[in-house]
Amino acid sequence: MDFRDKRYHFEPGEYNGKRVIWIRFEKDNQLISYLRNHTKARWSASEKSWYITDNRYYRELFGLKPVIAGKEVLRKIHAKNLPALKRFQEQIILKGYSENTLRTYTLEFAQLLYILKSYPVDELTPDRLRGYFLYCHRTLKLSESEIHSRINAIKFYYEQVLHREKMFFDIPRPKKPQTLPKMLNKKEVQKIIEVTQNPKHRLMLKLAYGMGLRVSELVSLKISDIDSTAMLVRIEQGKGKKDRVVPLPESVRLEDMRSYYKDYRPKIYLFEGQHEGQYSIRSAQQVFKSGLKKAGIKKQIGIHGLRHSYATHLLETGTDIRFIKDLLGHQSVKTTEIYTHVTDLSKSKIKSPLDSL
C-alpha cells in the first residue's frame, strides 16, 4: 500500500494561516493507520479532514507538483523583467508601506515574473492576466486568501507603477470564506492568566487582553508610552502606521505594573529580551501557547485570540461599536462589525419575551 492509492485525495490549502495539504478519504482504519505511520498528519475537527504541513517532502511523497520557494523564484527571474521588479519595489518603499508588505508583495509579483520568463510583464494584456489567475486557481490550487494576496500585488504594479487602471476590469476576486474570529470566553482568559506564574509573562497576557493589542504592538510598548497618572497608553505606529490611545486597566496599574517595574527595571521597552532589546514576537506567541497548554484549553487559537476576545467581551457588555473601532485601531467600522457575529454565541442567554408574560 502507498499514497498512490486512489482512495486518498490530496489538496493544497491553508489552515490557521499556514500552508497545508488536506488529505481526504472515506473513513477506513487501514488508510488511517498507514497515514499515521508514514506522516505527521493531524486531524482537524472543524474541517473534518486530515492535514499535513505543505513542504517539498510531502509533495513528492503524495505525487503533487512542487512549489518553488520565494527566494528561489527571485533568483530565476529573467533579466528582461528585473527592471520591472526594481521599479515595483521602489514604488512600495516610496509609498511608505511596511517591510512585511514589501516582502509579501515582492514574492507574489515575482511568481508572475517567473512564469513569464523572457516575456515582458509590461506587455501583458488583460486577457493574458486573466489566464494567469485561472492558472493560479486550476493548476496551483491557491486558496482564496492566496489569490487575493497575489491580485493585490500585481494590481499594485499595473495601477501604481504603470498607472493602468483598466487592467483588472474583468478579473473578479474569489469570495473568501466567511470565518469568524477565534476567541476565548472570560473564564478561559482568566484561567490562562492564573496558570502563568512568571510575572513578566503574566503581565504580557494581561495587557494583550486588557487593551486588545496585536502581538507586534505588545512587544513594541515603551516605558514612555505609559501614562499611569492619566491611566492611558499610547500605541505607537500600529497597523497602517496609525497611533492611538487606549485605557490602561486599573488592576494592572495598581498591582502588576508597579511590582513588575520594581523587579525587572526595564530601560526602554516595557518587555525586554535577554539583551535589553524588545521582546520577540515569537517568544510572546510561545508565552500564550504555554499558558493555553497549562490551562488545558484545546482550542486551536493564537495570541491574537486575546485581541478578538477583548473586542467581543466589550460588545457583550454594551460598549458602543464605534468606541471599540477606535480602541482596536480599525480604519473602518465594517472591520469591527465582524465581532457582532461572534457575539451570536451568547444569544442562548437571551430570554424570549414570551417568558415574561
Automatic annotation (TrEMBL):
Gene Ontology terms, MF aspect: DNA binding
- Entry keyword annotation includes DNA-binding: yes
**What are the GO BP annotations of this UniProt entry?**
DNA integration; DNA recombination
The UniProt record lists the keyword DNA-binding: yes
Q: Which domain of life is it from?
A: Bacteria
List residues of the Core-binding (CB) domain.
79-162
Annotated coiled-coil positions are: none
Task: Please give the InterPro entries that the UniProt record associates with this protein.
Answer: CB, DNA_brk_join_enz, Integrase-like_cat_sf, Integrase_catalytic, Integrase_recombinase_N, Integrase_SAM-like_N, Tyrosine_recombinase_XerCD
Keywords assigned by UniProt, alphabetized:
DNA integration, DNA recombination, DNA-binding
**Gene3D superfamilies membership:** 1.10.150.130, Intergrase catalytic core
Boundaries of every Tyr recombinase domain copy: 179-352
Q: PANTHER family, from UniProt? A: PHAGE INTEGRASE-RELATED, PROPHAGE INTEGRASE INTD-RELATED
Q: Which family would the database say this protein is a member of?
A: Belongs to the 'phage' integrase family.
Write down what this protein is called: Tyrosine recombinase XerD
Q: Which organism is it from?
A: Proteiniphilum saccharofermentans
